[in-house]
Amino acid sequence: QVYLVESGGDLVQAGGSLRLTCTVSGINFKIYGMNWYRQAPGNQRELVATITKGGSTNYAHYVKGRFTISRDNAKNTIHLQMNSLKPEDTAVYYCNIKLQGFIAEYDTWGQGTQVTVSS
Hints:
Blueprint: E1 3-7, E2 11-13, E3 18-25, E4 33-39, E5 46-51, E6 57-59, E7 67-72, E8 77-82, E9 91-98, E10 113-118
């Protein structure tokens, strides 16, 4: 019943900004942390940012100072504010549930949202 829907990706010029949204259903959202991942063609899916249930955040080094992850528990959403975008940020961006253990039905992905940064 877990359902993740990513949105907000677009084609933007280098230096521009985008705000991605992940809408979550099927879980008690407020008690779980969440992650943003991205995957470029030919690459492994990589962790971009994470946010705990309490709002603490961590980022991959290559996005620190440019990206901000946030959550809105009232709307069961997380966001990724992406500023100063670079062509190397081009990827499909996915959200998923941050799990300490393993819950098979929560180990899932949405369809992702394409971010393309032109130079």
